[in-house]
Design brief:
heterodimer, A: mainly alpha, MetI-like fold, about 75% helix, about 0% strand, globular, disordered N terminus, B: mainly alpha
């Protein structure tokens, strides 16, 4: 009997609630209905304002003759900046150096990184400490690291030449020589980012199916055979992704190069990034700089598309 | 056939031991090159100029605090430290506010287009935005303001946070919100009250990395912060534009910049690794 009475009382009670809470209830419903739009809207707006709009603006500026001399008067000159860029030896030099730096740095990073990961791939005391040490070069501020390496590379007082002397090798000019400057910079990048490959590969190794290894062991394969015929083939997609991600970052390297050489000696380490920076902020040739920027992000965008395509093909 | 432990001969124990020791030596040889430059920087920060430039290098010395004194007394480093902290914290917090709901909706409603834009923003070279930003911010007189600097750092932080959190939300079962919805919760309440509280690990990863990237950012600050908003990386870079470099001061400044990053990494090691490798390995 009691229960029935309770149920009868209930409608009146809920009515009171809906009446008093009518407004917030509606707002809530409105938010819920449009949540697909409302949740990503601020981010979308921000991305538009800070990324898409600037990129479109760069395209526009790349079609004008805007520089310090033209001052306020900007005129539309079509594709002239691109044509001039293609006639500019410094531009091709910078593309060449960017690729040289990237291929050298990333190539060595991948080989070293995978090798270190294969060595560390077991349980041992102090594994977390080793991982922490590997993390430090990546999280340490690149500007500070660049300056420290500048000191190491200093020809008379630096550790670099001291080490060469101990090994009985002739001293090097490091950053001062146009032949050695890119390898010297690549070495800093290798120091910073080899651990990245190692950590990615270690995570990849942890997710490999154990059956394949057990089968290989049963067949009596030696450790080296297992690495060559089982581990590396299974790791291939992981290594590929790590490689492409590193390539994209290495193509964009700015901090250490700018801090250590600002593109010198001469233009011997002026990568595309540094070239575009110099055009914009040292010569204030905004039109020409924009054309170089378009070239740069076309290059990086191509790499991005490669990543997207790879994610689809390898289902990563 | 496996031997019982008491049947293993002394020679075998010795062989296993030597193999172990050799392996540990190899690991030490691998780690030394990665830690050595950092140790050298820290040591140099406590040396005098003469000790730093000495050749052959000096390994044992009486530490001095003079470099740190001059960095903080003569160079106003306390202010740059404050500026860097403000920019890093503000850009991280704002990016979380914008990014968490966006990541949730991209994850749940499979909004691929926005996802691709976020990925592109994450992979684009920063320099391609720098020149247009500089021109536009100059026009509205916003160069050297905290707002412009924070906004620029957010373009690094936001895509990073969204990217990490999409991966994280993808791994959470939908049943969590669905049962909350059955109980009469709206989607936004379910997101706030149910999903966010259990997303701690993902949020810690995203926050730590976003803070680190802003803390270390050089390129955007180089152009967008000149005097008032000068951050640590710019301050240390200015040291070497003088004719004679005081290496002791540079190294002390380097220690001041690197230490917070290292401490953060030590505390959140697991999360930093996760964040740096996310997207490269599934899961």
């Amino acid at each position: 009997m009691k229960e029935v009475r309770l149920i009868k009382a209930a409608p009146a009670f809920t009515e009171v609630i809906t009446l008093s809470a009518k407004k917030p209830f509606r707002v809530n419903q409105l938010i819920e209905k449009n949540i697909k739009w409302l949740f990503p809207l601020p981010t979308g707006l921000f991305i538009f304002l800070m990324m898409i709009f600037p990129v479109l603006y760069t395209f526009y500026v790349s079609l004008t003759d805007w520089d310090m001399i033209s001052g306020g008067r900007i005129s539309f000159i079509g594709l002239d900046n691109y044509v001039n860029l293609l006639k500019e030896p410094r531009f091709f030099n910078s593309i060449k150096l960017t690729l040289y730096f990237t291929i050298m740095a990333v190539g060595i990073e991948v080989v070293l990184g995978v090798a270190i990961a294969l060595i560390l791939n077991r349980d041992f005391r102090g594994k977390n400490l080793v991982k922490l040490i590997l993390l430090l070069p990546m999280v340490a501020t690149p500007v500070a690291i660049g300056l420290a390496w500048t000191l190491f590379y200093e020809p008379t007082i630096g550790l670099g030449n001291y080490a060469l002397k101990l090994l009985g090798l002739p001293a090097s000019q490091w950053l001062g020589s146009s032949k050695m400057v890119i390898p010297s910079l690549a070495l800093v990048d290798i120091w910073e980012w080899t651990p990245m490959i190692t950590l990615i590969v270690l995570a990849g190794l942890a997710s490999l199916p154990q059956e394949a290894f057990e089968a290989a062991l049963v067949d009596g394969a030696t450790p080296l055979q297992i690495i060559r015929d089982v581990t590396l083939p299974l790791l291939r997609p992981t290594i590929l992704i790590a490689l492409v991600l590193r390539c994209i970052d290495a193509l964009k390297t700015f901090d250490i190069i700018y801090v250590m050489t600002t593109g010198g000696p001469g233009f011997a380490s002026e990568t595309l990034n540094i070239y575009a920076y110099n055009l914009s902020f040292n010569y204030f040739r905004f039109g020409a700089a924009s054309a170089a920027l378009v070239a740069l992000f076309t290059l990086v965008l191509a790499c991005n598309l490669l990543v997207l395509w790879m994610r689809k093909t390898y289902e990563l | 056939m496996k031997k019982r432990w008491d049947q293993v001969g002394w020679n075998e124990v010795k062989r296993i031991k030597w193999k172990e020791i050799g392996w540990y030596l190899l690991v030490i040889m691998i780690t030394i090159p990665f830690i050595f430059p950092l140790i050298w920087i820290i040591a140099a920060a406590f040396k005098t100029q003469a000790q730093i430039v000495a050749s052959p290098p000096i390994w044992i010395f009486k530490p001095t605090l003079n470099n740190f004194k001059s960095v903080f007394m003569e160079q106003d480093f306390a202010r740059f430290l404050w500026n860097s902290s403000v920019v890093a914290v503000a850009s991280t917090v704002l990016s979380l506010l914008l990014g968490l709901p966006a990541a949730y909706s991209i994850s749940r409603y499979k909004q691929q287009t926005l996802g691709v834009f976020i990925l592109v923003a994450r992979l684009m070279p920063g320099i391609s935005f720098l020149m247009p930003w500089y021109i536009l911010f100059s026009k509205i007189r916003m160069v050297d303001t905290f707002s412009a600097l924070i906004a620029s750092h957010m373009l690094v932080a936001l895509p990073l946070i969204v990217w990490i959190m999409i991966n994280y939300f993808d791994g959470l079962p939908r049943e969590l919100e669905e049962s909350a919805r059955v109980d009469g919760c709206s989607i936004q309440t379910a997101f706030l009250r149910i999903l966010l509280p259990i997303s701690g690990p993902g949020i810690i990863t995203a926050t730590t990395l976003s803070f680190l990237f802003s803390w270390n950012n050089f390129m955007f600050s180089l152009v967008l912060s000149t005097h008032r908003t000068k951050t640590l990386p710019i301050a240390i870079y200015n040291f070497v534009s003088y004719a004679e470099v005081s290496w002791g001061n540079v190294m002390a400044a380097a220690v001041v910049i690197i230490t917070p990053a290292i401490i953060l990494t030590m505390i959140f090691q697991r999360y930093v690794i996760k964040g740096l490798t996310v997207g490269a390995v599934k899961g």
